[in-house]
Amino acid sequence: MKSVTTQLTDKEAIQLCCLNPGDRKAFRTLYDRYVQDIFEMLRRLLWNPQQAEDALQETFIRFYQNLSSYDTERPLRPYLLKIAHNIAIDQLRSRKRIIVTKAQLTEDVKGEDTVQKAARQAEIKEIVDLALTRLDTDQRAILILRHIQELKMHEIATVLSCSERAARTRLRSASLLLAREIDQIQMGPGEEKL
Fold first, then answer.
1. Is 188 helix (H, G, I), strand (E, B) or coil?
2. What CA–CA distance (Å, rounded) separates 29 from 33?
3. Average pLDDT by consecutive 10-residue portion of the chain (194 residues)?
4. Is 170:142 a contact under the CB 8 Å cutoff?
5. 39 contact partners, CB below 8 Å, separation of at least 6
6. Which of 109, 141, 149, 153 sits at a 20 to 30 Å CA gap from 102?
7. Is the pTM of this model over 0.85?
8. Is 3.50.50.60 the CATH classification of the domain at 100-194?
């Protein structure tokens, strides 16, 4: 049988936390509900598990500190992802160097035997890795939010503090830039696209 706190809605858990600041069970319910999603996004943005763990802790600390001002009528997941996104951006800006791999961005190549498939995936990974490093942080972030975190456009807009239309435009722009970078890498130096 599940405990009462795990059956709480987000709104109920937040209200319990605000009414009784010492209620760790209610906050733990929220933490357990969202920790995996937030960590995965941070890990993919920062590409360093320790830094992702630090950012995850900072995300929940900031959320807890501002809990009383949170609008419980709004969905909690995009709000937490927005806090995490902002913390990750701050970390990336401070370290100036971004390392991204695309192991999670490649899909299985169907119809090839295991050796060919592994070689093709390694080649795709290398190309996409290089292309992603040529994009700025915001472009990488929106691609991760959409294709890895599988957020809906309104959720991405919330995380990025923009309108849904602006989020769509940014996603389209980032996708086109990624495709252009991949094309340039595949053509090699000195070759021109016909």
1. coil
2. 6
3. 66 90 88 94 85 94 91 92 92 57 42 65 76 84 83 91 93 90 74 52
4. yes
5. 52, 53, 56
6. 153
7. no
8. no
